[in-house]
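Subject: sequence -> structure tokens, single chain

Hey, anyone have a minute? Need the predicted structure for the following. Not urgent.
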Amino acid sequence: MKIYIVSGLGADFKVLEKLKFPGQHEVVFIDWLIPRRNESFAKYIERMADKVDTSEPFFLLGYSFGGIIVQEINKIKPAVKVIIIGSIKSDKEKSRLIKIGKVTKIPKALPTGFFNERTTHIYTFVRKIFDPKNPRLLQYFRVRDPYYLKWSIERISEWKFDENPEVIQILGDKDIVFPIKNSKPDYIIKGGTHLFPATKHKELSIILNDILK
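Reply:
Had a minute. Here:
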């Protein structure tokens, strides 16, 4: 069975490359697409879902923003199982900062030019202050198109979704992006920051193999 995977915002497969999946399954990464101008979220999801072959059963797995994307894909192309890691099941689980962004509409107000290379470096520097045990973020932060970054942050801020109890959620107990206090995950990675798929890949692989066996 195929496992279709969407990585985190701006990240490619490298943040997940150390994960070990059951040998009987085929892993297929769905690369981020650059949103078209004035493209709706629904149309974007349809394009991201194009790679998913529904002629046979499959799994969906998403990390961080990718967790949101696979839950949206599941609405139009239902999977046998949906697994989200370092992500949220509904808009009720958003952090206070993300909720403030929605109310104030700051993400929408920021110019596209704000999301440049310099801003990326500042973000990774600040993250390292609060999350010093994480490896260098820039090695995973590969998709840096300013329009894509602004669009993605707006979508996270505006995302509304009713929790699907069948979605399997795995969170790190030290995650500052999606704090565990806002969720009731099925599995908890002890000492896991938001980058736990890279830093705690052995523990996560054991859990994934149990889910996907």
